Amino acid sequence: MIYLDNGATSFPKPANTLNAAADAMRNYGFNSGRGGYTASVKTAEKIYSVREKLGDFFNYPTQNIAFTANCTAALNMAIKGSVKKGGHIIISSLEHNAVWRVVNHLKKDGIADFDIAGFSYDDDETVGNFERLIKSRTSAIVCTAASNVFGVALPIGKIGEMAKRHGIRFIVDGAQAAGVMPLDAERDNIDILCAPGHKCLYGLMGTGFIAVRDGVHLETILDGGTGSDSLNPDQPDFLPDRLEAGTLNNIGIISLGAGVDFINSFGMDNIYSRELEHAQRLYDGLSANKNAVLYTKRPEKYKNAPIVSFNFGDYPSEKTAAVLGRRGIAVRAGLHCAPLAHSYFGTVERGTVRLCPSVFTTRQECEFLINTVKKL
Amino acid sequence: MIYLDNGATSFPKPANTLNAAADAMRNYGFNSGRGGYTASVKTAEKIYSVREKLGDFFNYPTQNIAFTANCTAALNMAIKGSVKKGGHIIISSLEHNAVWRVVNHLKKDGIADFDIAGFSYDDDETVGNFERLIKSRTSAIVCTAASNVFGVALPIGKIGEMAKRHGIRFIVDGAQAAGVMPLDAERDNIDILCAPGHKCLYGLMGTGFIAVRDGVHLETILDGGTGSDSLNPDQPDFLPDRLEAGTLNNIGIISLGAGVDFINSFGMDNIYSRELEHAQRLYDGLSANKNAVLYTKRPEKYKNAPIVSFNFGDYPSEKTAAVLGRRGIAVRAGLHCAPLAHSYFGTVERGTVRLCPSVFTTRQECEFLINTVKKL
């Protein structure tokens, strides 16, 4: 199988990730932060070390990294936890349903309404599109770092700077960027970063996190036991406990720590360059095919996550993916849970075929895809 | 290590659970329900088979099993999804913070208030205690199947029958019972069952589920991509998609399926009998120790989960657990995230030392615990 669906989850995982998971099943399958016995304490230390790795990676304080089931859970916690009745949210025109459905729910419940800022290839225009929508009651700007369908990146640092100027909370969906494109809490003014652990960070599925800057308060949407402050009828007011109710996915979290180690040993920028070369190769190869329809500019560093969307002739995207599937190429078709982005790029009707290489993708695999599309 | 903290998470996991996880990492680490390629479809089928196993086990329709990060997430979804503004909830006096903090949050937000029904060793009295608290605006009765601290079981079938008579939704926290004590959607009238996958069901940590009877509608607290109905700004109205936003923990879920297989091959009733014998052995051994303080009646089948709480002399529970820890016995002390239950049994001040055997616990290990406490 030629796997080009790394935007859904990365596969394969690095060997050290799988080894860490196997080790965790043997040695760290204990409830951390609850027991006082050695195995529980050692487990807690191990989990802490993963917070530390992620904190260092994205420039958040260690204890401000809270683990979640996935990026979606983190985004729900970030957005719903940030708005009060009468609030207002600004999102980008490229958001995933993990953002769009959340703000729509808040609107339906009469809690907060939202506006959509259009993406532009001109960064200043994009920032202006957000800024123009600010109201005195705007609670948060929520923005994906890069479209999960088209790969185009939003100017996170510039939007963050503008949000800071207006004193508005800035929440970033790092689904397709965290682990491959640079994101830094302080430099980019990201008040809350939400990310999956199982995509560009190479951990197992069932992992994600919410990273919060000091002083950013969140109401909770998931309440329960934290092994701390147990007489308190409310969630503890300190992190990470406030945002971590119930038993954690130790095995997944420990694999995620190994994923960060893997990235650090390889160098994130090297991984990004390599994956982007693949994306460019795919883009160029398809550009040369008169039957292939592309929707974006050529992927460029810091302007794109390594993702390319296309269609073939007048085929529905599902048909193209099915044909490729029969030739042993795994790609995803359809709307990719992001109808907003498809509205923006005019592909709502038939969706797109999405190509997402990972660091393990080879040049030969990309060429096989290009040649297979040629012969369709 | 003698591990008697299976109430936090079961350890070790059965060999077939670990093998299933290893197999899943190699063969089912793909996003289910999103891709149309073979690996994704096979993964979806595998995940479906786990829904089927759990549905059969607890008597819910297959598609009404939705996977969650843990039991706590499931309880949040069940309770918050069941109440409207002005609602009222009845909980038992033995609830975990996964219930108590949730209803307290609803109260604090002015959405719903709650009352607490006292546990009694007399089942009819317990049922009466719930029934007396019913108001016309009562939205749900929420009840743990067995106390996570003291092991005492609530008469789920009888409470369910009473709830049905009043037309009130019945939500059960199966944290310490699901997989070891009989729970049946239809027989016990359990409208919503919430359970962890990593305790008595022997799956990996990071697993849990919410099982919903046909016709039970839930508002959602976690919204996002479901790989279905993507143009819909709301969560889909069908299960399990409505309750499953974002990427699932495939590895954990598949291990959970193997956990159910393990229980079925052994026979749940055999496991329960074996664990209960251990609990009785521990109880009897400690009863014979004049320095050991016990809080409940002797554990009996169908009246108790296999859990015993005790204290030693006038030691704080943490001190006893620390001493036992140094002798190689892993037990948990403190409030076990359940202050309500401690209020009821008069142990809020020093908590308790909790002993939770699993099917892998041996008679010798129980005797070692008893003898160690003798020599304290």
Distance between the termini of chain A: 18 Å
Largest interface: A-B, 85 and 85 residues
Indicate the multimeric state. Answer: homodimer
Sheet with most strands of chain A: 7 strands, mixed
- Number of alpha- plus pi-helical segments of chain A: 11
Shape of chain A: globular
Strand order of the largest sheet of chain A: 2-8-7-6-5-3-4
Report the structural category of chain A.
alpha/beta
Mean pLDDT of chain A: 97
Could you give the order of the helices and strands of chain A? EHHEHEHEHEHEEEHHEEHEEHEH
Poorly predicted regions of chain A are none
The helicity of chain A comes to 25-40%
Strand residue percentage of chain A: 15-25%
Q: What Rg of chain A is obtained from the alpha carbons, in whole angstroms?
A: 21 Å
The count of DSSP E runs of length 2 or more, i.e. the number of strands of chain A, is: 13
